[in-house]
Amino acid sequence: ERFPHTLSGGQQQRVALIRALAPEPSTLLLDEPFSALDEHLRQQVREETLDVLKKSNTPAVMVTHDPLEAMFIADRIVVMEQGRIVQNDSPQEIYQRPTNAFVAALFGPSNRFESYVKQGRVDTPLGCFLTEQIAEAQAVDVIVRAKAIVVHQLENSQYVEARVISVHAMGDETHFRLQLPSMPERVIH
């Protein structure tokens, strides 16, 4: 008994979803469906939407510019870069094996190092990585996720020395900005 403009943003999104599902479509297209909602409401409506889609067994294609939203809701993610598809995989595959530096950076903070394969190894300022799948002398980009870097007090020569530039407590995680002596002009995260 209320007019649409009197409903909250979350209520409007819920009504729009139910109206779209009423004719029992074979596929539903969702174009940035949660972008106008604040973060708390966005999470709630996103979970409700996923539940409704699964219960109705309605396949959906969702367009989003929010990588975390895509990871949460999708069975498969299609990543586009400059209008071209660069990866089409499960969320886990995209996160663990991104096809390029753009995809890696899109799905979480990462550090990129350019190097070459030499005797089955790739040397970076963060250490040596072994590779058997890449040809000798091949140029490579090594992507190291920020979460893969562990900060320790330097007690052992097997660790890589770095200077802590800043520390930001972010609730359940802490963000460090580091400077490597071998790359004084560059900060890693």
Question: Any key phrases for this structure?
Answer:
alpha+beta, three-stranded antiparallel beta sheet, 26% helix, 189 residues, four-stranded antiparallel beta sheet
**Helix/strand order, N-terminal first:** HEHEHEEHHEEEEEEE
Identify the strand order in the major beta sheet. Answer: 7-6-5-8
Low-confidence regions: none
Q: What is the residue-averaged pLDDT? A: 89
Query: What does the radius of gyration come to?
Result: 22 Å
Decide which structural class fits the backbone: alpha+beta
Largest sheet: 4 strands, antiparallel
Our count of helices gives 5
Distance between the termini: 52 Å
Strand percentage, roughly?
25-35%
- The helix fraction, in percent, is 25-40%
What does this entry look like structurally?
With 189 residues, this protein is an alpha+beta fold. The chain contains five helices and eleven strands; from the N terminus they run H-E-H-E-H-E-E-H-H-E-E-E-E-E-E-E. Strands 7-6-5-8 form a four-stranded antiparallel sheet. Strands 9-10-11 form a three-stranded antiparallel sheet, with no helix packed on it. A two-stranded parallel ribbon has the order 1-2. Helix 2 links the parallel strand 1 (28-31) and strand 2. Helix 1 packs parallel to helix 2. The termini are far apart. The mean pLDDT is 89.
